[in-house]
Design a protein that fits this description.
The chain has helices at about 5-15, 20-55, 60-65, 70-80, 110-120, 125-150. With about 150 residues, the protein is mainly α. It folds into two domains: about 1-50; about 55-150, no CATH class. Helix 3 packs across helix 4 (about 70-80). It starts with 5 loop residues before the first helix and ends with a helix. About 15% of the residues are buried. Bound molecules: zinc ion (ZN). Zinc ion binds next to helix 6. Zinc ion binds near residues 108 and 139.
Length: about 150
């Protein structure tokens, strides 16, 4: 049953009961469930907006702030680091919204993150390293949302 229809389902059922008190308690219950489900829905929506903004827009801001002379190129390179998500192809199931990528997928593992940190020291690979580390931070904050919304 879709989340938003749930309170109306309760409302329709409550009409069957003649007692006003019974109807009131059903209404209060449906209002409470409705506000909780709306809050959870809005938080999930916020999580999604934050996630994709951090993946696509935030690297643009970082590129503009720290790689100003070639910020468009830097932004494009950082967007290309999204390819690390190819390691999801090795997982079964391929996509699981409840799964935290960090520490699970090989290119999202802690040793991999250590390598990305070392890459920061190599000037030619610095933009790639920043892109990869921003990606890991984005996925990590998503895990925090998941644990919080559970
Ligand atoms: Zn990822």
């Amino acid at each position: 049953m879709p989340l938003d229809l749930f309170p109306f389902w309760i409302l329709r059922r409550s009409n069957r009961y003649p007692g006003k008190l019974m109807t009131m308690s059903f209404l209060n219950l449906s209002a409470a469930i409705y506000s909780i489900s709306t809050a959870v829905f809005l938080l999930s929506l916020t999580q999604t907006v934050v996630h994709y903004s951090l993946h696509f827009l935030f690297p643009g801001l970082v590129a503009w702030l720290f790689f100003r002379r070639q910020w468009k190129r830097a932004w494009l390179i950082m967007l290309t680091t999204m390819l690390v998500d190819m390691d999801h192809l090795l997982a079964t199931p391929l996509f699981d919204p409840e799964r935290c990528s960090i520490g699970f997928h090989p290119l999202h593992s802690y040793p991999a993150i250590a390598v990305y940190t070392i890459l920061l020291l190599i000037p030619r690979l610095r933009i790639v390293a920043v892109g990869l580390l921003l990606h890991m931070l984005t996925d990590f904050q998503d895990c925090c949302w998941m644990n919080w919304l559970k």
